[in-house]
Specification:
Elements (H helix, E strand, L loop, with lengths): L2 H12 L12 H4 L7 H7 L2 H13 L5 H17 L4 E6 L7 E2 L2 E2 L1 E3 L5 E3 L3 H5 E2 L19 E5 L6 E3 L2 E10 L8 H22 L6 E15 H5 L2 H6 L24 H16 L4 E6 L5 E6 L2 E2 H21 L2 E4 L13 E9 L12 H20 L1 H8 L20 E2 L1 H13 L6 E3 L10 E3 L15 E3 L4 E3 L9 H27 L4 H18 L10 H10 L7 H6 L4 H9 L5 H55 L4 H4 L1 H32 L4 H28 L10 H4 L4
Parallel strand pairs: 1-9, 16-19, 17-18
Antiparallel strand pairs: 1-2, 1-3, 4-5, 6-7, 7-9, 8-9, 10-12, 10-13, 10-14, 10-15, 11-12, 15-20, 19-20
Helix pairs in contact: 4-5, 7-15, 10-11, 12-15, 12-16, 13-15, 14-16, 15-16, 20-22, 20-23, 22-23
Bound molecules: adenosine-5'-diphosphate and magnesium ion (MG).
Magnesium ion (MG) binds next to β12.
Length: 728
């Protein structure tokens, strides 16, 4: 084994779990201690300011500058008490990473000394030089100004010595340059659309919240092995590597005992998460070796998403302490499962009613059915857009590759809810919807079986599954900002609810009761969703692909094409009618997405080419020299019979030549394709050209992986899958 690889593997294997220093308090005592939450607000703000801020958070009432000054003053005191020296506006540009620019709190006090200062103005707005963030040409670089503006609904938090203020990021002319601004608009749209319907059932409802519970999957790799893999370091995934003899075929990793180094990492991650007010609940081994998952208790969508963004940063910092690197890439290793971020999503009223769970009585059940069916209709109508919302260069490796999720967005209901929908079509509108068991079954009554909450038969192949009291959108990538998907989902549902309410109003105006009118408006929608979007079978089969095409569901697999969906007429109508995006914004964001796509593939292609030429071919030739020297020796010793005796060596040397030649030819062709793509001016065409390059990379990988099988273990320069995946 090459000296370097041998040492690295040995050292990695010998590492022991760290002792984590847990706070000497129970978790509930330090939960949220790094967040300026209501408890801290009460302590650091005077009563009037506190209530003004709470009103702003809960009801969107704007703060005047004078009050904002006082809020900033309170925040500053709280922060100084926690050792803070810097502040930053913390925002979510279109890069899928968060951004921060720190300023110290120090100012001259005009009396010859220094003072810590922080006022309302700098709380509310900042003007980072934004010319280097992707904007799709909305801001020509000479007009580089972009603003960050405080989002009071997500509490400020402390990271190290810095007070972080969650903000939206918008251009000088008001277009959103980030993920948060459109998400907040979509959340308002869905509340505005849902409230009038809820009020027919409960006049007390004033607001509907959208909830998100994300499940974050990730891989851990020992940091020394990681550092020996240029592909992991630069692209987040292995571009080459033969499958390990043992991988996930024994199903012995899923839910298995957590390795102690990993457990120590998880423990520290949770402690840091609790301090930041993130209610982490679940942790476990995932299906693939060295793959893990954690999930918090769900929360309000905007806040939950901020927390996911926060914890993704924290994950890597904590991992490094434990000698690991976190891989959030959707497909770091070929041949084993990739990582997603299931988005559990539901709606609930400010009166505490979940709108996607059966109610307490027939009326509550009717309300549930109304929302349930309308969500399905929204997903049906915008299935292509939902897929576009999760499409990226990295997630492309999961889409349509026979693993969750398939590249067709359908919805899984499970037997119980499917039966309920069929039954509803059979009975007259207005028939009470009961929970089975409570009232005793009788013909003509629609019943939601009591067992169904625990009985949400699992279908891992469905990208959008009903799981008893929520839908689980499973197509989101592990590295993604959930806001992209959540904006589209909430917007689509808002549009559908508005449409439904208009139909319902007509039925009510005709003098029908709510029970009859609601079902009369719902029945055509039920028929349509059963025929089109609902699918409980295996989403990976070719039959389903054919059937889905027949049903008119989108089956596109090219990411650049998927991105185009954002500017198709039905999407433009959706976003503009709800005031979420203008056409200009949508076009600009598409430019950004295509640009990011092209650049990510470009980086992979470069890394692939250089590793092939600088790592693989030299190793292969070195091995070949060994073989040929061996043949030459044989010839010396056995001049008459060497040909038979050197048969294997010659055959191997021959194979090496052929594979090296194949790699060289393919790399040269790929470099030419890149040159051609780089000359393209139009972002869409360039992304399409890079899509073809992405499709060609497995062709280069194949002879490399063959060589890994042939070349002697000593000479192979890169840590192998069996080393990357089984050391922890
Ligand atoms: P799974 O069995 O799907 O792996 P997990 O326990 O890993 O479940 O994660 C489920 C996620 O769904 C958690 O974040 C949980 O809080 C969240 N969740 C539960 N109920 C709801 C709901 N009504 N709305 C949104 N999210 C929810
Ligand atoms: Mg889970």
């Amino acid at each position: 084994m090459s000296k370097l690889r041998f040492d690295v593997v040995q050292d990695a294997f010998k590492k022991k779990a760290l002792d984590v220093e847990a706070p000497a308090k129970r978790p509930s005592a330090y939960f949220g201690e790094l967040v300026f939450n209501r408890e801290q607000m009460r302590k650091y703000l005077d009563v009037k300011v506190f209530y003004a801020l709470v009103d702003c958070i809960d009801n969107g009432r704007p703060l005047d500058l004078e009050t904002a000054d006082k809020v900033a003053g309170g925040m500053k005191e709280w922060a100084l008490d926690h050792g803070v020296t810097h502040i930053t506006h913390w925002f979510q540009p279109l890069t899928d990473l968060t951004a921060e620019k720190h300023d110290s709190l120090m100012e001259y006090d005009n009396k010859g000394g220094m003072i810590e200062s922080f006022d309302g103005k700098s709380l509310i707005q900042q003007e980072p030089d934004a010319s280097s963030f992707p904007s799709g040409g909305i801001r020509a670089t000479f007009e580089a100004r972009g603003y960050t503006a405080w989002d009071p609904t997500s509490p400020v938090f402390i990271q190290g010595d810095t007070l972080c203020i969650p903000t939206v990021f918008i251009s000088y002319t008001g277009e959103a340059l980030d993920y948060k601004a459109p998400l907040k608009k979509a959340l308002k749209a869905v509340s505005d659309a849902a409230v009038p319907i809820c009020r027919l059932f409960d006049p007390e409802v004033n607001k509907v919240n959208s909830y998100l519970g994300w499940e974050q999957e990730y891989f851990l790799v020992d940091e020394d092995l990681y550092a020996a893999r240029p592909d992991l370091m630069l692209t987040g995934r292995t571009l080459m590597g033969h499958a390990s003899s043992k991988s996930q075929q024994l199903d012995d990793h899923y839910f298995a005992a957590i390795p102690s180094r990993v457990a120590a990492f998880m423990q520290e991650l949770e402690i840091e998460g609790y301090k930041l007010g993130i209610p982490i609940k679940t942790r476990h081994n995932e299906v693939a070796p060295n793959q893990f998952e954690f999930a918090p208790i769900y929360g309000e969508c905007n806040l939950a998403n901020d927390q996911n963004q926060m914890i993704m940063n924290v994950m890597n910092k904590v991992a490094r302490k434990h000698g690991f690197v976190v891989l959030l890439h959707e497909k770091p290793f070929a041949g084993i499962n990739g990582s997603g971020k299931h988005n559990n999503w539901s709606l609930g009223t400010d009166t505490g009613t979940s709108l996607l769970a059966p109610g307490k009585d027939p009326k509550g059940n009717l309300q549930f059915i109304v929302f349930f069916v309308n969500v399905l209709a929204a997903v049906q109508r915008h299935n292509a857009l939902l897929k576009a919302s999760i499409a990226s260069a990295t997630n492309a490796h999961r889409l349509g590759a026979n693993e969750a999720p398939p590249a067709i967005v359908s919805a899984f209901l499970g037997n119980a809810m499917t039966d309920v929908l069929h039954k509803l079509l059979e009975v007259p509108s207005g028939t009470p919807i009961e929970i089975a068991g409570k009232k005793g079954a009788s013909v003509g009554i629609v019943e939601i079986p009591q067992i169904f909450l625990d009985n949400t038969d699992r279908n891992r192949t469905s990208p959008f599954a009903f799981t008893g009291n929520r839908f689980e959108f499973r197509a989101v990538g592990s590295s993604a900002n959930c806001a992209g998907a959540m904006t589209v989902l909430n917007a689509a549902v808002a549009q559908q609810l508005n449409k439904y309410k208009a139909d319902l109003d007509k039925e009510l105006a005709a003098g029908k009761s709510l029970e009859v009118a609601a079902m009369d408006s719902l029945k055509p929608i039920i028929r349509s969703v059963i025929d089109v979007v609902c699918f409980d079978g295996n989403g990976y089969t070719d039959e389903w692909k054919k059937e889905a095409a027949r049903r008119g569901l989108d089956a596109e697999t090219s990411v650049p094409e998927m991105i185009r969906t954002f500017t198709k007429p039905e999407s433009v109508e959706l976003f503009t009618s709800l005031g979420i995006h203008s056409l200009k914004e949508l076009e600009a964001r598409n430019e950004v997405k295509w640009d990011i796509y092209s650049k990510k593939v470009q980086i992979e292609a470069r890394v692939m080419g250089r590793m092939a030429v600088n790592h693989i071919i030299p190793a292969a030739l070195e091995y070949q020299s060994k073989l040929l020297k061996n043949v030459a020796l044989m010839k010396e010793v056995w001049p008459d019979s060497f040909k038979e005796k050197a048969g294997v060596a010659l055959e191997l040397a021959d194979q090496v030549s052929a594979l090296v030649q194949e790699i060289r030819t393919k790399v040269d062709a790929m470099v030419e394709a890149r040159k051609k793509a780089n000359r393209m001016e139009d972002e869409y065409s360039k992304a399409c050209a890079y899509h073809e390059i992405a499709e060609s990379l497995p062709g280069i990988r194949q002879p490399i992986d063959r060589l890994e099988e042939i070349v002697d273990n000593d000479t192979w320069p890169l840590p192998k899958y069996r080393e990357l995946l089984f050391i922890n």
